[in-house]
Amino acid sequence: MTTSTPESRSEMMFLGQECNHPACYLHDFLPFNCPACHLAFCQPHFLPSQHSCTAPLPASMIDRIAPTCPMCNEIVPYPKSMDPNEAVERHIMSGTCVGLQGGEERKKAEAKRRRDIGEVCWKKSCGKVLIVKMKCESCQHVFCPTHRHPTSHTCSDQTPSPSSSSSRLGNPQTPSTSRPAGKAALSRLLPPSMQPPASTEASRSIPPVKVNSANTTLGGSKPLAASSEGNVGSNLDAKAAAAAAALKRAGQDVKVPFVKSSAEKRTQAEVNSQIQALKARHEKGLLTKTEQVR
């Protein structure tokens, strides 16, 4: 490990200056000059009151005032080298004083001209003089650091156009067209006894497809067996689930009453099992009075 020597520490001493305070003599790399005696000091000692400065202050610091226009009561800015009365006179003669006729319109036109050439911030409510210009990538206008983001100056190009958004989303269907389509798909999948009431002309115009029950025959053959009843019920549940999915894709929030949850199916199966057990006990004559009342 190398240690710093006096020679290595003195290599960077050409940067900055030593503080002229008699009790400090700190080598400051960014010194401050006293406005009265113009000597170099560190930050804690550069004010005249901090180092007992005997030099007189400049007149610009003693008699510094902010002149006000007598016509519009606005504070008129001016440089240190200019007389305050001359600054007020220039303000009135420029024609931008709102106290004169047409002055407000000329003031707005002048502010717009300064925004167009990039002299001040483009945001109307800001008007800061730009030292570091920052251009918005969306609207190509220059702004101050505070309003450089598109969300800070209500950028006109931050919202996508309808054509670009529709092409990006793949031209989706509108709710007005998808809603009747979902109801029509539901009406085709349900038997007549389970169909919801029709509310649109599209659902009335499409006739529902009838689903044969377990008592009907297939092609004039024998009636369906008891084992086929479970297949028909499962097909109805599958079609009902497909209809509910079609309604959800169509953008509707409709509760389909015929779609049972797993808990409801278990409850129904338990009730059916109890009924079958009671029937078997009734055929054998084993029912009690309580079970007969039930």
From TrEMBL:
InterPro entries per the UniProt record, alphabetical: AN1-like_Znf (IPR035896), Znf-C2H2_ZFAND2A/B (IPR057357), Znf_AN1 (IPR000058)
Domain AN1-type residues, every copy: 19-58, 121-160
Record carries keyword Repeat: yes
Record GO terms (molecular function): zinc ion binding
Biased composition (Polar residues): 168-179
Superkingdom classification of source: Eukaryota
Region Disordered, residue ranges: 148-231
Signal peptide annotation: none
Xref: SMART domains: ZnF_AN1
The entry's keywords: Metal-binding, Repeat, Zinc, Zinc-finger
UniProt xrefs under Gene3D superfamilies: AN1-like Zinc finger (4.10.1110.10)
GO cellular component term of the entry, any: cytoplasm
PANTHER family: ARSENITE INDUCUBLE RNA ASSOCIATED PROTEIN AIP-1-RELATED (PTHR14677), CDC48-ASSOCIATED UBIQUITIN-LIKE_ZINC FINGER PROTEIN 1 (PTHR14677:SF40)
Listed name of the protein: AN1-type domain-containing protein
Organism: Cryptococcus deuterogattii Ram5
